Amino acid sequence: MLVAVSLWSGTGFCLVIYLAALQDVPVSLIEAARLDGADRRRLLRHVTLPALRPVTVFLLLWQTIESLQTFDLVYVTTKGGPLGSTTVIVYFIWEQAFKNATAGYGAASAYVLAIALGVIGLIFQVARRRLQGASA
Fold first, then answer.
1. Distance separating alpha carbons of residues 19 and 23, to the nearest angstrom
2. 18 near 49, Cβ under 8 Å?
3. Which residue, of 40, 91, 103, 129, is most buried by count of CB atoms within 10 Å of its CB?
4. Packing angle between helix 103-135 and helix 49-68, nearest 10 degrees?
């Protein structure tokens, strides 16, 4: 249930970003593909989707970071329950720092989260550069 709520809450943001990116696809590329005889499927595959690739990478990174920082949804709905099955890292950090009064353990967990987010960001940046190198 939490996954469904989280997906639904992020859908609007992603749709608005994709809509803006679709409006930014160069019309000259679309016209050139149509003059070359591309049908709608080929236009989508060879023009539109490659133009949306940077936005897709951004949204994947954004949603990954958002999913790792989910606190409010878990706190309001389940408080990490039943038997800790919905405990996420940010809720765990809060629980250690404020509920169990072990601030050092909570701070260490927060550093681990920050390092993990940095590594994920670097992975996405390397992947983006490889995709740009392959398309150039």
1. 6
2. no
3. 91
4. 170
Q: What is the pLDDT of residue 107?
A: 94
The residue ranking higher by pLDDT, 127 or 96, is 96
Inter-helix orientation angle 49-68/2-23, to 10°: 150
* Tokens 């490659």, located at residue: 50
pTM value is: 0.75
**How do residues 36-65 score in pLDDT, each as one tens digit?**
999 999 999 999 999 998 899 889 888 888
The amino acid occupying position 28 is S
Burial of 93 (0-12, 13-18, 19+ CB in 10 A): buried
pLDDT at 73: 86
Number of residues assigned to the chain: 136
What's the 3-state SS for 22-72? HHCCCHHHHHHHHHCCCCHHHHHHHHHHHHHHHHHHHHHHHHHHHHHCCCH
Give, as one character, the DSSP assignment of residue 87: -
What 3-state class would DSSP assign to 86?
coil
Report percent pLDDT > 70 for the chain.
Answer: 98
